[in-house]
Amino acid sequence: MKVHAQIEEEIFYPQARQATKDNDLIDEAAVEHATVKHLIGEIEGMEVGEELYDAKIRVLGEMVKHHIKEEEEELFPELVPAKMDLDAVGKELAKRKEELMAEMQA
């Protein structure tokens, strides 16, 4: 999830912002990412069974589902008429993901 968030923030969101000029949607997505990353950090510092651990996992799942739904239903439809080169962006995202995953394994 961390890698996915990072590549969206580095590559996808700036290009989507430029293509759509929809700052509100991109700003909201950035805030959602920050919140998810904060919650992941809290969970990583916990032990399974610790107080609120299960609740935080559930909330994280709900937040991610909500975020995905907004991207699919609101942001992605704006990209088609904006003529964003989704194939090129997809390749750039895949390349950066591969780099980050390699760094994590090193």
Structure, explained:
The protein is 83% helix and 0% strand. With 106 residues, it is mostly helical. It has one domain. Helix 1 runs antiparallel to helix 2, helix 1 (2-20) packs antiparallel against helix 4 (86-105) and helix 2 runs antiparallel to helix 3 (53-79). The two termini are 18 Å apart.
List strands and helices in order, with pairings.
Blueprint (H helix, E strand, L loop, with lengths): L1 H19 L2 H22 L8 H27 L6 H20 L1
Helix pairs in contact: 1-2, 1-4, 2-3
In short:
This protein has 106 residues and is an all-alpha fold. It is 83% helix and 0% strand.
* Structural class category: mainly alpha
Residues in helices, as a percent range = over 70%
Largest sheet: none
Q: What are the segments in which pLDDT stays under 50 over at least 5 consecutive residues?
A: none
**Number of continuous helical runs:** 4
Q: Indicate the proportion of strand residues.
A: under 5%
Mean pLDDT over the residues: 92
Q: What gyration radius follows from the Cα positions, in whole Å?
A: 15 Å
Number of domains: 1
Per DSSP E runs of 2 or more residues, the count of β-strands stands at 0
Described by the principal axes of the CA atoms, the overall outline is globular
Order of helices and strands: HHHH
How widely separated are the two ends? 18 Å
